[in-house]
Amino acid sequence: MPRIMTKAWGLGLAFIAAAALALALRPDLRLAARVAWNDPRLLPAFADDPRVHYEPEARGCAEAVAEIAPRAIAQIEAAHGRTFAQPPVVGVYTSYENYGSANGMGDPGIAAVTRAGVALLSPTLCGKERDRLEGVLTHELSHVHLSGWRPLGAPRPPQWFTEGLAVMASNGGGAEGVSETEAAQAIRDGYRVVLDGRRWIDFAGLAFEREPPRDPKLDALTQRQRLAYRQAGMFVGWLRMRDEKAFLQLLRALEAGEAFEPSFEIAFGDDAQQLWRCFISELSERSRGDAPK
After folding, report:
1. Which of 23, 64, 202, 292 is the most exposed place for a label (fewest CB within 10 A)?
2. How far apart are CA 208 and CA 225, in angstroms?
3. Residue 197 has what pLDDT?
4. Phi-psi region at 117: left, alpha or beta (left = phi > 0; alpha = psi -120 to 50)
């Protein structure tokens, strides 16, 4: 073998070995590789709606998603006050393993995730949780809409706002099983979600001022997550009703990549914590007003 080819072959083997070592030592790189390998945009596109990509065995579910997608997209555009920056992409899976790899969290138990501007739907949404499909899809499209306009590297808004926005815009998607009446009573009882600055999904770490009582018939993690999402969604909806112009101003600032806290204060003339206290006060006054004389 010519010396130059021998040298190139050796360099190639060294590169492969270095890449394998890097993947072995860096779990985040292994996760990124699995995400890229399972990117839903590599899946076939549904003929009637190329925004929907699906694993071949998920064709029936993809058909249901394609039927829902136009009204879900219209609903999100109306709630956000703007069209999508580009056509949204939805990935539909039948393999829990592939879905867990694609969602970037390695967790196949999450019903849906938005990653890199793409909504990924778990097989459970066309199985035992089929009744949640439209609400959860619409919820995820809210995340896709917001991320689609934001520049790369822009600071993330806090989780309470992005999830609250998605719950509000989807009319309760992601907070199923917890009514506004139940969430309002929990707020009045002191079981209030904390509007902290966390920027990424941390289902187990969603904080409450007081830990809400657990219903032994329900999964504890799901129960507290949906209560937190419902409360956040109610607050975001209240902000919009209080001043829609300010609300849309905030969204446009976030879409332009501005930081959340100063953008919020510029739009509403106050910080989120103060307005959260106003929201709680209104709930309490409303309860007293409804009480029997």
Report:
1. 292
2. 10
3. 77
4. left
